């Protein structure tokens, strides 16, 4: 038998990377945030009024910011 065959296999927890742990923690925080912010709010923008859960409004704003950041980042590389 080789030395590798005798080595114990690493546990599942030891195979999870730091990035995977961080992603898991952020996912749990996001789920808690959604559960805590289910109340509906009114958003007024120019002549439009939208009633929606707070978490959905914040998600849309986050996505708008993400797209804006990606567009700016791409222009900066040229």
What does this structure look like?
It is a single chain. By secondary structure, the chain is of the alpha+beta class. It is built from 4 helices and 2 strands. The chain has helices at 3-6, 12-15, 18-36, 54-77; strands at 40-45, 48-53. It has a two-stranded antiparallel ribbon. The radius of gyration is 22 Å and the shape is elongated. It starts with a helix and ends with a helix. The mean pLDDT is 82.
Task: Briefly say what this structure is.
By secondary structure, the protein is α+β, with helices and mostly antiparallel strands.
Characterize the overall form.
Answer: elongated
Subunit arrangement of the protein: single chain
Q: Bin the helical content.
A: 55-70%
Order of helices and strands: HHHEEH
Question: What is the strand content?
Answer: 15-25%
Structural class computed from helices and strand pairing: alpha+beta
How many strand elements? 2
Question: Treating each run of at least 4 consecutive H or I residues as one helix, how many helices?
Answer: 4
List keywords for this structure.
single chain; 78 residues; alpha+beta; two-stranded antiparallel sheet; 65% helix; elongated
Write the layout of secondary structure elements.
Elements: H1 3-6, H2 12-15, H3 18-36, E1 40-45, E2 48-53, H4 54-77
Antiparallel strand pairs: 1-2
């Amino acid at each position: 038998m080789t030395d590798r065959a005798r080595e114990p296999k690493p546990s599942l927890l030891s195979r999870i990377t730091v990035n995977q742990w961080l992603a898991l923690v952020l996912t749990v925080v996001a789920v808690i945030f959604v559960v805590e912010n289910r109340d509906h709010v009114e958003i007024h923008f120019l002549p439009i009024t939208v009633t929606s859960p707070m978490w959905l409004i914040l998600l849309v704003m986050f996505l708008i910011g993400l797209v804006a950041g990606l567009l700016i980042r791409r222009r900066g590389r040229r």
